[in-house]
Write a structure and sequence with these properties.
The protein is mainly α. The protein contains 10 helices and no strands.
Length: 215
C-alpha cells in the first residue's frame, strides 16, 4: 500500500519553490523602490506575506537575498543552470574569430546589464557605506565576473591565440575593466546611453583594446 510520502514531498518542494520565488520577486521590487538600505526584512515579510523567519530560512540575510535577486536577474530565471551552460555563452564560444567572439560577448554583456543594471545601479548610487555585507556582495559579483571574463579570454587564447606580447592575465584585466558594472552604470544610467549604444561601444572597445595591449 502506498504511503503517499513521495507525492507529499513533491508538493512540499513545489510549495517551497513558489514561496522562494515570491520572496525573491518581492525583494526585487522593494529594493528598486525603497533602496537596499531603506528595505527591511520586516518590510519584505509583509509584502511577500510570509514571516521574517521564513525569509531567513529560505534566502538568508538581507545581503544574501540581494545576491539571490541578482543571480536570478543575471540568469533570467531561477533554474539551477550556471551561465557557462546557457545558450548565450554557447553562442559566444561558437564564433569563428576573435573579433566575432568579442562582439558576441559584448552582446551578452549588454543583455546582462539590461537585466541587472537597475538593481546594481541602485546599489552603486546608495553606496555600501559601513555595511560590510553589502561591500562583500559587490566584491563577490566583481570576482564572479572576472572568473567569467577569464574563461572567455582563455577560450580566445586556446582557439585563436592572443596578440604577440599579450598575456592572458593582461587580457583579462582589459575585459574585466571594460565590462565592469560601474562603467555600464556610468554610461547608461548617468549619461543616458541606450543598451544598443553601450553594446556597440563595448564591442569596439574589446576588439580594439585587445590589439592595443601589446604596445
Amino acid at each position: 500500500m502506498s504511503t503517499g510520502r513521495p507525492y507529499e514531498s513533491t508538493l512540499r518542494a513545489a510549495a517551497a519553490r513558489l514561496t522562494r520565488r515570491r520572496i525573491v520577486e518581492t525583494a526585487r521590487q522593494e529594493f528598486l523602490s525603497a533602496g537596499y538600505h531603506g528595505t527591511t526584512i520586516g518590510d519584505l515579510s509583509k509584502a511577500a506575506q510570509v514571516s521574517p523567519q521564513t525569509i531567513y530560512n529560505t534566502c538568508g540575510s538581507k545581503a544574501d537575498l540581494l545576491k539571490t535577486v541578482y543571480d536570478m536577474l543575471l540568469a533570467g530565471d531561477d533554474e539551477n543552470v550556471v551561465m557557462n551552460d546557457r545558450p548565450e555563452i554557447a553562442h559566444v564560444l561558437n564564433q569563428r574569430s576573435t573579433r566575432a567572439t568579442l562582439r558576441a560577448y559584448a552582446g551578452v554583456s549588454a543583455l546582462i546589464v539590461g537585466r541587472v543594471g537597475p538593481l546594481i545601479g541602485m546599489v552603486l548610487a546608495e553606496g555600501a557605506g559601513s555595511d560590510a555585507d553589502l561591500s562583500a556582495f559587490l566584491a563577490a559579483i566583481d570576482g564572479e565576473r572576472r572568473v567569467g571574463n577569464a574563461g572567455i579570454v582563455q577560450h580566445l587564447a586556446d582557439r585563436f591565440g592572443l596578440p604577440d606580447g599579450v598575456s592572458v592575465d593582461r587580457a583579462v584585466d582589459h575585459v574585466w575593466t571594460l565590462t565592469s558594472i560601474e562603467v555600464a552604470d556610468r554610461l547608461i544610467r548617468r549619461c543616458g546611453w541606450t543598451l544598443a549604444a553601450y553594446e556597440h561601444w563595448l564591442g569596439e572597445g574589446l576588439v580594439g583594446g585587445l590589439r592595443a595591449l601589446d604596445r
